[in-house]
Amino acid sequence: MMCGQGNYNPSGKPIGIDQAAEAARNYVRDYDSRLVVTEVMEFAWNYYAEVDEEASGIHAMELVVDKSSGGVYPEQ
Known about the structure:
Elements: H1 17-31, E1 35-42, E2 46-53, E3 59-66, E4 72-74
Antiparallel strand pairs: 1-2, 2-3, 3-4
């Protein structure tokens, strides 16, 4: 899915769900301050974050957070 993208994590230890949620919140804050991360789910190779418009509650997008690097990418 995202082979070769993101930052190398020299510790080799995957990030936790709290770190993934923070990475997603930082991405959303830099992208558009009107958006909010509403849910973060853990899967085998990555985390998945759902993002809504804060004022309306309308679903806006999904993000993928790489467990190895902490890199955040829009879901295709």
